[in-house]
Design brief:
- With 298 residues, this protein is α/β, with parallel strands linked by helices.
- The chain folds into two domains: 4-110 and 232-297, FAD/NAD(P)-binding domain, CATH 3.50.50; 113-228, FAD/NAD(P)-binding domain, CATH 3.50.50.60.
- The chain contains seven helices and 18 strands.
- β10 (142-146), α5 (150-160) and β11 form a beta-alpha-beta unit.
- The longest helix is centred in the last third of the chain and has 21 residues, at 277-297.
- The model is unreliable at 49-53 (pLDDT under 50).
Length: 298
Amino acid sequence: MYDLIVIGGGPAGITAAAMGINQRLETLIIAACWGGQTSYAMHLEDVEGREILTGETLLEAFRRQLDYLDFVRRFDRVSRVMPEEGHFVVQTETGDCFESQSLVIATGAKPQQLNVPGEVRLAGRGLSYSATAHSGLFLGKDVAVIGSRRYAQCATADLARKAYRVYLLAPEPLSNTPLAHKLRQMENVEIMENVTVEEVKGEQFVERITFSLEDGEQREVPVSGVFVKLPRTPNSELVQDWVDCDRAGRIIVDVNCATNWPGVFAAGDVTYVSEQALIHIGEGAKAAISAYRYLLMC
């Protein structure tokens, strides 16, 4: 019987597991692989070696600790999580079964992809799914943001303070919000609605993006960066039947990362927090400390 099982190998999960170990909890982390938002770095043609501070930098020490203590990690996919009387049972796709007195769910969220030519090849070479992590690398450049909802609008506003020009390519009309109104007033932001992205182009790095407008007109604009900000799907299906989630599927937590179910905590993109990996590190640490305090009172 473990004290704590952490499900997920992104920034929140890795940090939660390391913090659990540091609190001398019998800890196990189960993940298909190490990854999450930090699974790729951004490389640009004229800024090689000039990265900004990222979660990857801070996570490295935690990850080395987990790599060294190989008995605390299991690379596998969790297939089922169920509460039992006084504890939890976690089953994996390979048939293993583990029991724990507490859980940290850090399974992240799936970013919706464009599914167009050039997207996979140029990911991390000018194409990003996180403006929070990478916008600082595009000072004075032309970039495109793809999306219509709040995250896309926030990314556009953020980039407008750094990039030379920002094209907001919205698949749907923008809602009439104060932020959307503010974006329409920005001189270096061009908004196009009802857009269908056709291709992201470039030899080694992003160079252009092609798209079609509602009337069928084809356009191509030169850009150095493409930020895909389409709706994300929280990976909460393992616990949705018994842990409270919002309408979008995000696990609902309080300020201590606790869910409605005693002994179950959640952190990272599977909850309603920023996509910033640095914040996920803090949330993972908070969730593990909350689990430790829960176990003290059991």
